[in-house]
User: Fold this.
Amino acid sequence: MTKYYTRACNFYYGSNAKFLIKKKIALPLCGNQNIAFDKLEIITRNNKKALSKIININQVKSLNTSIKKKVREDLKKIVIKRKNFLKNINFIEPSIMGILNLTPDSFSDGGKFNKRKKAQNHIFKMIKGGAKIIDVGGESTRPGSKTVPVKAEWKRIENTIKNFKKKYKKINLSIDTRKSEIMIRAIKYKADIINDVSGFSYEGQSLLKLKKYNIVKVLHHMQGTPNTMQKSPKYKNVLLDIYDFFEKGIKEIKNKKIIIDPGIGFGKNLKHNLTLISKISLFHSLGLPILIGTSRKRFISQISGDNDSKERIGGTIASVLFLLSQGVQIFRVHDVNEVKQSILVFEKILSNFKN
Assistant:
């Protein structure tokens, strides 16, 4: 079987982007007039290998019939503006998801915020720093972590979940859990997003149990489980395998309030992570907002070596700004204010840039 994939590439920004779109030389990325592209990478995959070629957007009409139909369908999804299905979030602008780990053992900040007052202060700090989503988790999913029972997980997050919307009505509350019982309890306290790192596969029945709730879902990719995911992960083609995973998952989720997350560091080695980051624009052809979490991840240490640091802010910001330049809409981070500052400066520079 032969399958085709379409990746937008060769981007322009700010005044250049608007000018080229107006002249019909380039197309807007996800409806954003500040990011334009004029080339496509067409990837052809069969059972043996994947081949690719770069074409200009005006060459699509010259492709053979079977490829042309698929590329045109993909192109519509790449160009169209994403629907704004979250409160106070416009997917034309980048949004920050602040991480609140109410765990004793998360890889970066385990034990820092699992006391009530510290959690409340951190939520306030992240929102003040620019977070429009707070992602609350009560179970560590770091490499090698063990499963936490439902009762223990809920106890860790219960107070925060029950009181969040009383104080922050305009901020989106995201629940980072693999367990449907936790998901449904959180929905009853007006949670806006379910962020399940297992891609709703941990229990098998999660999507069925969530069917009656019109809740936004993050479709996250992970190979294996947190306990096994970093034990020699393998793919035929990491980029295309994960694209296929998303295609299948999108069909299984009945409502279309979906955000996709390729799961940097979740069952991926350094090469896999770098491939996903550098080619992230392939996923725009799925027509959905993209969420990425590179914050403080191990790949930063693997690249930086002796220049590694505890909080890895430099590596986090470098990856966020590259992903922003590729049209990614949501960034899941620990250091909200620093990332927000970097985005504001970067966008200002891009908006004033002219060739």
About this structure: The mean pLDDT is 93. The first strand starts at residue 3 and ends at 13.
